[in-house]
Design brief:
The chain is mainly beta. The chain has 2 helices and 12 strands; from the N terminus they run αββαββββββββββ. The N terminus is likely disordered.
Length: 204
């Protein structure tokens, strides 16, 4: 059993490339499905992160206390390992932190944040899979949960996930598409939104 798991892990690393590693969470029982996802070069996969200095302009949160963004995309097709989702349309951008046209939120101040992702899996076009499709939410390259559209007998299905995260100023939050067996997936529509719930006192 141990040998087969090593072979499987090596196969995944070979298939997904050196920037992506899957590992069991410390203390997880043997064969447990719980896993953490670590993307070593999460900062470099999105060109908009080159604007980090601009996104973090200013030493404190906006005087209004409002930090929020909402963005959407359509027609994402990919296969293989985790692929960063980019959002062509920005509906809301308040307080800085969101790079329009990209897929990265950079916390402009320290505090508690809320995020939500949703998507429509479409197996009708592009020869895309009807098997499990996921959108992972990653903080600083580590998975903090995922939305899932499970295997079914319909061409279209949805997935949604919400999470609350404590972020230090400069922490990154991104979303990545994935699929069971790394099969081709088609996200007909997908949405990403987030906002500051409460600024930390030491972040003032």
């Amino acid at each position: 059993m141990k040998t087969s798991r090593v072979v499987l892990l090596c196969g995944l690393v070979s298939l997904l490339g050196p920037d992506l590693a899957w590992a069991e969470e410390p203390g997880a029982a043997s064969g447990a499905s719980k896993a953490r996802v670590l993307f070593a070069d999460y900062k470099t996969v999105d060109p908009t992160t080159a604007r980090e200095a601009e996104l973090l302009a200013g030493a404190h949160c906006p005087d209004s206390g409002i930090v929020a963004f909402s963005a959407s995309g359509t027609g994402h097709v990919s296969e293989g390992g985790l692929v960063l989702l980019r959002y062509a349309t920005t509906h809301t951008q308040e307080g800085g932190g969101w790079g329009e046209g990209g897929g990265t939120f950079v916390a402009p101040c320290t505090g508690l944040y809320f995020f939500n992702v949703s998507f429509v899996k479409d197996a009708y076009h592009y020869g895309a899979t009807a098997n499990d499709v996921f959108v992972h939410v990653l903080k600083n390259g580590t998975s903090k949960g995922r939305a899932m559209s499970g295997q079914g007998h319909v061409d279209r299905d949805t997935g949604v996930y919400s999470v609350t995260l404590f972020l230090e100023k400069g922490d990154y939050v991104q979303t990545f598409a994935a699929s069971d067996g790394n099969l081709k997936r088609h996200l007909l529509e997908y949405n990403f939104t987030g906002h500051l719930v409460k600024q930390a006192a030491h972040g003032l």
